[in-house]
Amino acid sequence: MAEQRFWEDIAVDSPVPPLMKNATPRQLVMWAGAYGDYYEIHYNENIAKANMLPGLIIHGTLKAAWLGQMLSEWVGEKGRIKKYSASYRSMDVPGDNITLTGKVTKKYVDGKDHVVEADIWVQNGKGEKTTPGTATVIFPSKG
Amino acid sequence: MTQGSVITEEMRKGIGIESEASIYLVEKEPIRRCAAAMGDNNPLFNDEEYAKKLGYRSIIAPPGFQPTYCFPVKIAPMRADAGPRMPQGFTRFMNGGDEYEFFQPIQAGDVLSVTRRLGDLYERDGRMGKMFFTVNETVFRNQKKEIVLIQRSTTIAY
Asked: ipTM for the complex?
């Protein structure tokens, strides 16, 4: 795991450290099996095209899981994710360079919890936000 | 689509009515397969000794892990008194998004009791006419009956 960040280190408007992905069709098949979502548009190109899609598309739930991975790596082992969301606005495709990232919108103390809120999103190779969401995470405090 | 609301009082009465529970034992291999499919090599999801050193009983599930889908068991259907779920005239569906609220880590060996309930219904006018949103909540409780996770999934019909 990367170094542990603390609540005091996090500034409003600072970026959530990005996580890069580039899915292969093989990875989509692995996710179909792990998640149990066997809809063919994720691994059968003919069926994807028959459904008016440009080709295979990445599962929304895999993108949501990647946002979770980005948040886990950000908060580290002493932090935790309280809540996050992902809206599946546009599709992403295998072979594209995908960036998961975000921006801190708020930080505050709630009882014992040192809380950070952020806008988070999935960005495609053209820089378009395809899958926006929000996150509420807890960081450890130095204090 | 029609003018005015498509959501009836009868449909709203279904909000909050919880289904019967389905029971799942969280096993290590589905957790490892989920992490492998994500491309996440965090040892907390793979290495039991590592996870134990951090105070867990076993490996823990990554965010996005869905125990209900990792087992060949269907989630319990909604109760009959949960009412009608869909107005007439909507034929196309999209997965609108997911929200995950975490209360405790899910650990291998946990026995989860999983229920579903209708969380919310709302509508919006979009480019393709009226869009009807259904939010389904899946509630995961552990062997101590504590809520560990609530997933809120939005389906858009149009």
From this structure: 0.94
